Amino acid sequence: MSSASKNILLFGAGKSATVLIRYLLQKAQQYNWTLTVAEADVQLALAKTQSHPRSAVLKLDVTQNDARMGAIQNADVVISLLPPHLHYLVAKDCIAHKKHLLTASYVDEKIRLHEKDIQQSGILFLCEMGLDPGIDHMSAMRLIDEIKSQGGNIKSFKSHCGGLVAPESDDNPWHYKISWNPANVVNAGKAGAIYRDGHQTVRLSYTDVFNSCKRVATPAIGEWAYYANRDSLPYMQLYNLQETATFIRTTLRHPDFCKGWQHLVDAGLTDNEHSMEKFRNAPVNTWLRHVLQHRYRVQSFEEYLKEIVLHPDRPLIRQQFEYLGLTGETLIPEHIYSAADILQHFLESRLKLRESDKDMVIMLHEIVYEQNGTLHKINSSLMVKGDDHQQTAMAKTVGLPLGIAAELILNNELSLKGLHIPIIKDIYVPVLRKLEENNLKFIDI
């Protein structure tokens, strides 16, 4: 199987790229490929590639058309780990130069408008090829197709996924450390949530998402809280489960995280619409006092705890706010604009993974189905731990599906064309098999 002289182009070398780069360099060595990493921060890219003989680093601003097009023109497969709003810049050049494109992000609506062009160009655009979305789709469709092939009728589908801190590294009152894009942590839940429960459509506003957390037990790892993740309803059609009575996709967190985050939301500390520029270089507790006065008409954090926070939760909320440094004298940096910017800054500094810390990814599908007049339940779970603060579980579960897909394309084992997400057997069967070979395996009970 010869794939000599093939070139993989990767845009972005951030948190999620570490394991992907390692995997692609292993395959590049095996198959005589080249991996080119295009990144504005050359030192970051060099640290990830470590001068591997099958690697090249390209300093590139993706908004510069000529440089971007030149890099894409020389590639066989393009992978974008850029922020989602930048995927379209890469996508339009991939269409023009007939290059395959892989992303871990939800399908961009501007890219979807070019679905016919992608098909006619004879190339594959494979989106939602990370963890969530990505592994969730593939593992769910494996179960759904298998149940249906045996005559089963699915009554309830619940899919849970969380990027968490491993128990041995859990040492703070939030029971959480950041292993992926911190802006996504701050903005989680802002779109509200929609799901189906017992044939009824449930709609939650942002202020209700974290206030509606329920609990689920996961095999060997214990009980976690979960909150509804965005709009679950379109996935009923994608998974061909339109008649299913209950359908929900959720995010897992520690129960204490949900309690604390609800207070951040209620207090307006995640707001990104109103300017907080006047608090640049001010002590963070001055900003916190201002926000609490505006929202609750209280004069201090102590009064907020006394008047607003229910008694049983006061010690926890105090610990959480203090741990983030929100009640202290640390100065707010120059680059902030909104409350969300301030919060993100303190989250990044106080909830970061230390070098020896390990993160953890948990995914759990709960399916109830009827077969021959009898109800059955299956729980299918995946648990992955990181090795350290760089080779994280998040980097493994986001990066490996992308790397495997690139390998399959270049070795002519994935010949699909057009715009796809990984919900069909031609994709999920070989990818899940190779994920198992890399110790990412679901346990069904």
From TrEMBL:
<dbReference type="InterPro" id="IPR051168">
    <property type="entry name" value="AASS"/>
</dbReference>
<dbReference type="Pfam" id="PF03435">
    <property type="entry name" value="Sacchrp_dh_NADP"/>
</dbReference>
<dbReference type="Pfam" id="PF16653">
    <property type="entry name" value="Sacchrp_dh_C"/>
</dbReference>
<dbReference type="InterPro" id="IPR032095">
    <property type="entry name" value="Sacchrp_dh-like_C"/>
</dbReference>
<feature type="domain" description="Saccharopine dehydrogenase-like C-terminal">
    <location>
        <begin position="130"/>
        <end position="438"/>
    </location>
</feature>
<protein>
    <recommendedName>
        <fullName>Saccharopine dehydrogenase</fullName>
    </recommendedName>
</protein>
<dbReference type="InterPro" id="IPR005097">
    <property type="entry name" value="Sacchrp_dh_NADP-bd"/>
</dbReference>
<dbReference type="InterPro" id="IPR036291">
    <property type="entry name" value="NAD(P)-bd_dom_sf"/>
</dbReference>
<feature type="domain" description="Saccharopine dehydrogenase NADP binding">
    <location>
        <begin position="8"/>
        <end position="124"/>
    </location>
</feature>
<keyword id="KW-0560">Oxidoreductase</keyword>
